[in-house]
Each structure stands twice: as structure tokens, then as C-alpha cells.
Amino acid sequence: EVQLVESGGGSVQAGESLRLSCAASGFTFDEYAIGWFRQAPGKEREGVSCISSDGQTYIPDSVQGRFFISRDSAKNTVYLQMNRLKPRDTAVYYCVAKKGLCDYPYDYWGQGTQVTVSA
Question: In the predicted model, what is the mean pLDDT of the chain?
């Protein structure tokens, strides 16, 4: 059974940092692209990062320079380091996975972790 379990969310002040973790199981970790999406109330889901099976990373302009993604094959875990957080980063963050490269559609989704940034 495929599982993506997010952790590390919480409430912080603007300017602070958080590191989200996504622990993956049930598939061959190194063969999969792992990414992060977020969704704020009333807004569309937005992709905020992805790291492909070959280690290439994709970060959209909206969070470029503040969000960084990495993967640890020994722990089957992907990390999203979020720095200089802003209130508009408030959302539920979801870990996603698909085989190979970062591209739609993603086959697996985690349950999400809440990130709240106050001014």
C-alpha cells in the first residue's frame, strides 16, 4: 500500500521558517518524482515544488528563492524547506508522487499538513 505521510506543519510568524517532511512507503522511492502542492481556502491548488527521480528540482516563481526541496533515499523522505514565510503561504500542504519525472498527473497524494503564517 502506497503511503505519503506529511509532517512538520504548524503556526509561525511571518519571516520564520518551517521544514515539511514527506515519508513515503509502498513503492520504489528512487523511481518516483515527489512534489508538494498547497491549497488555501477558496483558492485553487498550486504546485510549489517537485524533485524528480533523477534529482532535478522544480520550484515555481511564486516561491523561488524561499522554498527548497530535497530527498533522502536512505529515509525514503522528501523535505520542503520553507524560509521567510509570508501570510499568503498559509495553506494545507500535500505531498504527491508519480513515477519518473515531475509532471501531471500525480498518482498518489498524502493527507496534507496545515501551515499557518500570521503577520
Answer: 97
